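Let's practice the habit of predicting before peeking. Look at the sequence and jot down your guess about where helices and strands might fall. Then scroll down.
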Amino acid sequence: MNSEHPLWAAGPAELLQHGISLISEQSDAKRRIAMILVDNAAELTMQTYLTLPKRVTGLQLSRRERDEYCKNFPSLLDGIEQHASDKIIGLNLGEFEWFHRLRNELYHQGNGLTIERKNVEVYAELCEKLFEALFGVELEIVFPENSHAALIGEFFESWIKIERLLAQWAQNGRHSSSSMNVVSLNEEGELSAAVVMTFSEVQKIRNQLIHGEAEVDEMLRDTNMAKIKLVEHAVSEMAARKRQRSQSDET
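Done guessing? Here is the structure:
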């Protein structure tokens, strides 16, 4: 993945970096600002992608369509779902909407609400992965000391890779959930029952992480990181076998 940012990607990247730089501040107000900045980065990322010239993205959208998609956050999600669904495999747009609603509560009722650091870190990493998926460039984010963001990003990177390979090589691929794809591949003899069980454990960890149901250092302790790496390795080997067989059939 390219690490050089095109000029039109600089805005979302700078907003995200600014938000992440405030995460470690021991202040409810600073964490609220960080959450708002990260959400703004997510919004600008989608808006930029949908309004770029056709020569950049290959999208052919009329001015009316662009205006319709860019009118609010949910409509931006609709636009990305409609025109970039193959780019965002492994990312759940419903989770972006959930975080956006949380941001709105903070914005409109700011002084009465607080936001936990782990929520901001998780949303920041989801936003980073969205940026990288849409623009095809890798962000070089500078994380504050004692931040869990880098570890969260490593977990999400493995998860996205797993989901993309499952979607590519399972029988029903894009038309089935990752859970169904894993079961299907087990029935084909491509993934073991142990891998299926570990995948379920990793999926539960991911969902708890997204919704802040446990502390990050507990959810992403070494034993749990080893689990997602095990699943990633097994799914990668499955994909390699299928790819090799497919190439052999072609010849």
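How did you do? The mean pLDDT is 90.
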